[in-house]
Amino acid sequence: MRSENPNATQSITQVIAASSLGTLIEWYDFYIFGSLAVIIGQQLFPSDAGASALINTLAIFAAGFIVRPFGALVFGRLGDLIGRKYTFLLTLVLMGGSTFLIGLIPSYSSIGYAAPILVLILRLVQGLALGGEYGGAATYVAEHAPVGKRGFFTSWIQTTATLGLFLSLGIIVLTKNMLGSEAFADWGWRIPFLVSILLVGVSIYIRMKMHESPVFTKLKAEGKVSANPLKESFQKKANFKMVLLALFGATMGQGVIWYTGQFYAQSFLENTCKLDFNESRYILLWAILFATPFFVVFGSWSDKVGRKWIMLTGMLLGVICYRPIYQYFIDATNVREFEKTSLANVSEPVTERGLATNKTDSLITTTVVKTLASGMTFKEVKTETIAAGQIGSSSESAVAIKDVTLSSSTYIMVIALVFFQVLLVTMVYGPIAAFLVELFPTQIRYTSMSLPYHIGNGVFGGLVPFIATLVASFSGSTPLSGLWYPIGIAALSFVIGAVYINNRVDNNVMD
Question: Which CATH number is associated with domain 6-333+408-500?
């Protein structure tokens, strides 16, 4: 299995294909929620919740990340006791079932606060399942991979997280374009959740045909399977030291780079820069499409030059470049400033009348579309609330910017800057699976590598959208204030990793 003959090559290809497909679907299931946070917030909370609906929805999204380490402990232990194959088959079933059920949960208008509570429970199940999936898939592929090529082969698993996000964005945009904005916001957002059950069914069928890892099979035949993986992982001083080093010197920094470059970038463009729904997602889709091959490039390169400095360079570049990049996003979408000198056209106003949230006052919404000389467009939406009994007298009014679309040159530049952020993701994430599996012995590898990965990636990284959005909402903060969280975490991880991590090149450490 570990030799360089054609049958071995065919076998590792099948292993990667089966493992990657299942892992991609799990990431797809996990990330649909984040990609639809704004719309889901409108469904789960009262219509007058305002910005708190988004923050509360991001908190529910973050809950799935917080429980991932617990999933790593539970399923990591199972994986080290009964094997890799059946453990991450179980996680796939749990993930697919909970994702499907989220698509069936009634809205707040139907069942009140039971809606967000039920979704929170299902997000927790998703987090537990994902906590067991990644470590199993990465370990399974690494234990099949030929010596000297673990970085290359495990990097294919690393592509699945970003490709899962890509797939979720693609299906969301396709569904929205087919149904229209109103139908999608009303009920169409459920479709990406519901179709996941078909993807999961295909993946389960494929994974049922997989064989157990040869390294684990040999260990089991020799009677060397760990009797207590948790105890061996965390009570043995030398191994626990490696767990802490993996967390603080690698996965913590990798996590914040991953979620800043992809999730927070999209959230910032949509919520802070007010980009059109499709515009922000197309930008991320193009950036992911161009950057994804670099997971394999950096994974393969790490087999030759070591894992350490590739990962740490990605972290350092994030620390240096994030604030200038996001400042450009703000400047490039400052339509109020551009409007002063380059307003080219204003559409006829469209006025809608209805009732305010309290069902008593009148609400008048007037929308105009403005076009700048550069080709950039945006909607200016004015809302006036007329108190009952005071017809003709506006008691409250507000003007908001919505649905900004960029000029061609700015659009390309924004794609390039998001691409650069995803490129940093490939640097920190491409080599990390090989780095983690090589740190720990076979009998406790699933448990030992899963915990630091899911704390670093899931907790520190997964909290980026929530914490950054929350910090930016504080009084006295600026739109860039939220970036201090990922910058600080990445900087700390860089320093610890630079001092304490060895620049390991594959040298039979798993044999």
Answer: 1.20.1250.20
